[in-house]
Design a protein that fits this description.
The chain is mostly helical. The protein has 1 helix and no strands. The protein starts with a helix and ends with a helix.
Length: 104
């Protein structure tokens, strides 16, 4: 009789134990879902930061290219000025020679 009562108690307690286990699993799943949702928010945040960084990088690259073009144009201008300077120096030497000839 005592064994029978123990067996019945085990049958009654078994679903309760299963229910407690399922409640614990449910709680764990809710915690995991919450963590995953937080990770998704962080992922979106990181993606936004990455997009902003890429936009800033492209802007800096375009600025660099513009400055490079200005440097190239400046270098061309300096070369043309040097060529003009050289021609003027030749002209001065020639004119000095002409003046020297005229004075003597």
């Amino acid at each position: 009789n005592a064994e029978y009562m123990g067996a019945l108690e085990d049958k009654v307690n078994s679903p309760q134990e299963q229910m407690n286990g399922l409640v614990l699993q449910n709680s764990d799943l809710k915690s995991n879902i919450s963590t995953l949702e937080q990770l998704l928010v962080v992922k979106d945040d990181v993606n936004n930061q990455l997009e902003n960084a890429n936009a800033n990088l492209m802007h800096a690259y375009k600025e660099k290219e513009g400055l490079r073009q200005q440097l190239d144009m400046g270098a061309e201008y300096i070369i043309s000025q040097d060529e003009k300077n050289y021609e003027l120096q030749k002209l001065i030497i020639y004119l000095k020679g002409v003046i020297t000839c005229l004075l003597y």
